[in-house]
Design goal:
The protein is mainly alpha-helical and about 180 residues long. Helices cover about 75% and strands about 0% of the residues. The chain is built from five helices and no strands. The protein is elongated.
Length: about 180
């Protein structure tokens, strides 16, 4: 189901502001995520009634739930959790997953480039293996390795809100220009 033009505009504005703010300050402001949540529910409710509100609610819960798990693993900040909940309320859960996968790809590429620029690529790739191993054994990776805690000064950190915004722009761009 295609997104309505008003929803696309709201999505692009919220994503652009969130990405910009995260790049500039390494924080995503609460006023923006709250405005995104409210906008998502209002636009979806007005355009599709109860079904639209259900779509907004499921999108919000999907974004919040998945990013809450990442937050609990100390892989994301709380602003990223709220930002993806807001994005979900605007687009619903189906579109949210497309944006999520695009943001993951952008974030992975940006992470590799960041690790290369800091001379930490080998260590970062080793960390990925360690993270997978620890999670497979139901252990939080940051407990034994402080540099895997996004809150640690030892962590290699990047503004994930910018990757989320890029994911939004990629998905919307793809839907407009795909053959």
């Amino acid at each position: 189901m295609p997104l309505a033009p008003g929803i696309i505009v709201a999505l692009l504005v919220v994503a652009a502001l969130g990405g910009y703010w995260d790049l500039r300050t390494r924080r995503i402001p609460n006023w923006l995520t709250l405005a995104g949540l409210i906008t998502g529910f209002v636009l979806n409710g007005v355009s599709n009634g109860w079904k639209g509100l259900e779509n907004a609610g499921l999108g919000m819960l999907t974004g919040f739930g998945i990013y809450l798990l990442l937050y609990l693993l100390r892989a994301m900040g709380a602003g990223d959790v709220k930002f993806m909940a807001a994005i979900g309320s605007i687009v619903g859960w189906r579109w949210w997953f497309q944006i999520f996968f695009a943001a993951v790809i952008v974030g992975a590429i940006a992470g590799v480039l960041l690790a290369l620029s800091k001379g930490r690529l080998r260590r970062t790739l080793g960390n990925v293996g360690y993270i997978v191993y620890e999670i497979a054994h139901l252990r939080p990776p940051h407990v034994r390795r402080e540099d895997l805690d996004v809150k640690s000064e030892k962590a290699l950190r990047m503004p994930h809100g910018a990757a989320i915004a890029a994911g939004v722009f990629i998905v919307i761009g793809w839907t407009w220009w795909k053959p």
